[in-house]
Automatic annotation (TrEMBL):
CDD domains: HTH_ARSR. This is Winged helix-turn-helix transcriptional regulator. It comes from the Bacteria. PROSITE patterns: GNAT, HTH_MARR_1, HTH_MARR_2.
Amino acid sequence: MLQLIREATMATDVSPAVIDPIRAASRRLVRELGFMRGTLAGTELPPSAVHALLEIEARATMTAGDLAQSLALEKSSVSRMLRKLVLAGLVREAPGVPDGRTKALTLTHKGQAVAAGIHDFARRQVATALRRLSVPQQRSVLDGLRLYADALGDGNGTCDMPPVRIETGYSPGALARCVELHALTYARIAGFGRAFEATVAGGLAAFAGRLDRPCNQLWRAMQAGRVLGTIAIDGEDLGPGIAHLRWFIVEDGIRGGGLGRRLLAEALAFCDQQDFPETQLWTFRGLDAARHLYESHGFVLAEERPGRQWGEEVLEQRFVRQRA
């Protein structure tokens, strides 16, 4: 029924008055973003290699076949490109498990540094453009680009990825993956290091021993057996009647697509089902997108103070959501 409604509301014909301006805008985007040049994003790399580095970084490890599918390129083209990246010391190939014939791709330290530079360049480029727009206009750009990219993918079959499912509870490797996602993400955005990773790992280890109790739960965003994001509710560590929202993370490259909102909605629904009158979370100043998401779900900033609970001094923030 929902599919019939969707099809009924979609345009059955598209006027050239819409098509041609979109084509013109697309060509201008290609030029403005630098894709007409031989190199991209302040590197000495061609666009396909830049995208390859970012895809490998986002997955942490992947095969050449995975990369070809992600980039919608022929395997032979990807193989040639990978050879150059390996020779340049940016990508490492290692025998995969269980099939040793399959090579697992990871970024070297040099590759990680180049990827970080690409992210910095691209964020500055996007931020410079968005500063010229109002907040509602920025949201329109985001929504429009997502819709258009999704429509292009649906039309040519190059984005035929398995759906992302939200699953609950422990699964082998999920806790380690949660630690990995936190360590990689916050090393990049906040410079957190060993102390932060150890803190996350220690907290998760303690929580794992209490996960079978009904007031505690863990959710995993899964795609083709891979953990793309996590969130947890700890119903014990802050005292009776308080739910602690913890270990909320979504893989780089996926944020902004609604997955974090889905995870948060699952966790808050659980809090309401368990009759927690209050839900709290700790974060730190500067994570504006996360703050907007929290506030859109009823969280209010209750406390702000300097602290080092994550290994580096930041302005810590405690948000509170009261059950209606």
